[in-house]
Amino acid sequence: MTRELGDGTLAVGAGRPPAKKYAPPLPGPAFAAHYHLPGEPVGPYTYGRDTNPTWTLLEAAIGELEGGAEVVSFSSGMAAIAAVLLSQVRSGDVVVLPDDCYQTTRALKERLESYGAVIRMAPTAGNAQMELLDGARLVWVETPSNPNLDVCDIARLVEAAHEAGALVAVDNTLATPLGQRPLDLGADFSVASDTKALTGHGDLLLGHVATRDEALAESVRLWRKTVGAIPGPMEAWLAHRSLATLELRLDRQDANAMALAEALKERPEVVGLRYPGLPDDPSHEIAAKQMRRFGCVVSFVLPDEAFAERFLGAMRLVNQATSFGSVHSSAERRGRWGGDAVEPGFVRFSVGVENAQDIVGDVLAAVDEASAEVRKVGEDL
């Protein structure tokens, strides 16, 4: 085919082998710790920690979704993140991190410093990391940021970083490759926790690193082999199976997230509402330039911790969970973990694929219930 495929068509067929008589369209998971290997130890499959046919198909699929890339899959998103940071950085190297990125990514700061790396940190918003590029080896970008949903200009940061001689890695977890393609914007690495929206069912842990540089891909692959951060074949197979519905899930979640954000704008109890798809969101202008879909996460602040807990407990359709991107709506009071600079009533809401009116209705009813409880307590006093 000479024309570019649509996202849905691409997602359905990505990484699947050519049709073969009597064979399933997606071969089942290959469970193998070792392979029959007579003679010299060369070939595509030599040992189970190095390669696996199920990973091969999944990595090919994600590579297509990333716009053409070498992909290395990992046992979790953090395994993928750590692989880039720890394989590319040496003692004395300067690493620029966002100070508002995923808290476990920030937790690698002390580990990198213990190896002799120098860490500089700045917020995502306003492209603040650009002020810290001098002498840097690696710049880590997360956009939209988790959980505050700030956005930076990837192409602009990449250009400045490359001029300074630095590599750029983008955590693209929230957007997925169908929402944003960092490699097309010049980044050296696109990294994601595939636990979230890419696989979208909340039932497996996976991550990946994508790059168009064969040497960088090999360095990350060697790191995976060395530390053994490999995905299980069943998880890899489930992930590949789940990709077929990626466009459907993302489009439904985007529409639902917008509906929820619009509804929450009308509630006086809600402040600090953030969703990059809202035209008046501080991130919208840049997000609209580099994103094709705005993601499933809406964040907002309720009056205090007690109000937020009442709100979360009052919802009937929404799980209280710390992940995001699942087909099932979930929410949490993010401050309960203590690792993010958020207010006590800050809620991160992951919008699922349920009917929009049901999600919105459940959320607004929960706000009403929490408000009524607060009024009752006030009256009793």
UniProtKB/TrEMBL annotation:
This is Cystathionine gamma-lyase. Belongs to the trans-sulfuration enzymes family. One of its GO terms (biological process) is transsulfuration. It comes from the Bacteria. The modification N6-(pyridoxal phosphate)lysine is found at residue 196. One of its GO terms (cellular component) is cytoplasm. Its EC number is 4.4.1.1. PANTHER family: CYSTATHIONINE GAMMA-LYASE-RELATED, TRANS-SULFURATION ENZYME FAMILY MEMBER. InterPro entries: Cys/Met-Metab_PyrdxlP-dep_enz (IPR000277), PyrdxlP-dep_Trfase (IPR015424), PyrdxlP-dep_Trfase_major (IPR015421), PyrdxlP-dep_Trfase_small (IPR015422). Gene3D superfamilies: Aspartate Aminotransferase, domain 1, Type I PLP-dependent aspartate aminotransferase-like (Major domain). Keywords: Lyase, Pyridoxal phosphate. Its cofactor is pyridoxal 5'-phosphate. It is an enzyme of class 4 (lyase).
